[in-house]
Amino acid sequence: MSKEMLIVFVAISLLGGTECGILYPRASESRELVTLDGLWSFASTNDTNPFQGHVEKWYDIDFRATDDVEIRAMPVPASYNDVGTDSDLRDHVGPVWYQRKFYVPASWDGLKVWIRFSSVCRAAEVWVNGEPATTHDIGHLPFQADISSIVVYGGENTITVAVDNTLLEATIPQGIVTTLESGRVKQTYTFDFFNYAGIDRPVVLYTTPQTYIDDVTVITDIDGTNGFVNYSVVVEGSDTVTARVSLFDKTGNEVVSDTVLQGTLFVQSANLWWPYLMDPNPGYLYSLQIQLIDPSGTLIDKYSLPIGIRTITWDSKSVKINDKPIYLRGFGRHEDSDIKGKGLDLPLIIRDHNLIKWIGANSYRTSHYPYAEEIMDLADELGIMIIDESPSVNTENFTSELLENHKKSLTELIQRDKNRPGVIMWSASNEPQTEYEESEDYYRQIVDHIKSLDATRPVTVVNAQAPDDDHSGQFLDVACCNVYHGWYEEPGDLDVVVTEVVKVARRWNELHDIPVIMTEYGADTLEGFHYLPSYMWSEEFQNNLLSKYWQAFDQMRQEGFFVGEMIWNFADFRTDQSFIRLGGNKKGIFTRNRQPKASAHLLRKRYWALAQDLDNAEVPDDLEDYIYESTTLRDEL
């Protein structure tokens, strides 16, 4: 391991020592796990009295037995907005309340019992048996609490959760709340996706021993064909335990092991983690197994973590995986589906990644918030590269309170995803108002904070500002820009696209001497709307616009500084109501129910052509349909 890598590893390993671990819950010989997903009891407060539930102490009420509060069934995980039939629930602002019963086995007495939420959007207060358990105020990220002292063992327990979707000037993301003359509270925000809310990811109970593995940090390195797994394990509860740390390959064979809590595993002839289509065996994952053993030799705790062995490096012209330059072929996306909203939707996740592979993409950005851990797991397994984005979107009014909340969201994001091989870059924000001078010191501190937690990945801010107006670029490792010439700018005029797109991207590189990725471009398109000659909103226009951008991209690729293209968007998605939105944002190349528009077939041809040219990938047989064979040429042959 190089001296530089050792310094980075020591720095990032401290993250586990300063924050509680948030390891994904996995059952093992020492850990039990019970899901609390299912139908919960649900109540919403009156829009004119948002604190009704707190004043009336709904956390002390049995929702099943009360006639004082209107109770309905609510699925978890799911956003609550589209489950009902009334606009009051869809557009509700303020707290809503969830409750359910759960059973804790008597055999768990003496263990630590944890309640873990993978995400609540946005702010959450949790009570167990009427006692405060925990609070959390950032959506899309997990949190947990030790509830060992407040549960009933061998009996029934009650969990109550207040969820508040209110967005304010210092929340991540920001918003504004106004009170109308009617007394109703109205929420407004500048970002262009619907503010779905609720318990939108899994809730689990799990146990650990009193002495347990709290956190694991892994940084990998390579030297030729060999790999190095640098690891650090944080243990809570006792310092008299010993460890056995083992690395297993995909077939379950132990490759190497050690007996220290912080060390380096040498992997001879390692199977490296490669992105999809860059290698015949992409997304190779080992299993890092940690066991804690007491002085008598008895197993105390055991936890296994999937890891990939790979390196990320970057310079002024390129980003490299395992010393090989990468070119991102991908998407901006959203967690968004009919009825469930942003709720975890496993069939949809599988469908999405099947489409990503079908189209020949190798990457996407978690626009504009951290995605579910199940999504991130699948990306790791498939070799899909991820630009991992914080929930900061359209940031403005750069106050000290906002800065601290933004830092907190980044700390939680990096704590969650630091070990993922698929995460190749951190995105601090999407389209912040960096034309303001006060944004300069703000983003200097934000980028410094990210690099203090993880210096092994490049950092970006996804910008929509003109390069010369921006105050964040000097702190970044990669410039990510969103450009909409031919749509929002010069609408309908495709003749300007190539010149303007090249001008913008080239200027980012000239100003800051860093590689450039186009993270958004595209056009709204109504499924089945055709027009010849092409016209805005038609499928023909979307194809024509994309083609112009691709001309610009290929020109910049030849210039050597352009390292990726991500179309906006993978699929149509819901937004707040607006006269410019017909049921939502329609820039998807797939519909909201994941069926292809004409542009999907066109994009597929481009992405596979790039994969063949840059990665020597084998093009699928069904990429082109048979059209015609010249009989004259055949007869001559």
Automatic annotation (TrEMBL):
Domain of life of the source: Eukaryota
GO molecular function: beta-glucuronidase activity; carbohydrate binding
SUPFAM superfamilies recorded: (Trans)glycosidases (SSF51445), beta-Galactosidase/glucuronidase domain (SSF49303), Galactose-binding domain-like (SSF49785)
EC number, UniProt record: 3.2.1.31
PROSITE patterns membership: GLYCOSYL_HYDROL_F2_1
Function, as annotated: Plays an important role in the degradation of dermatan and keratan sulfates.
Subunit structure, as described in the record: Homotetramer.
PANTHER family linked: BETA-GLUCURONIDASE (PTHR10066)
Name of the protein: Beta-glucuronidase
Native source species: Zophobas morio
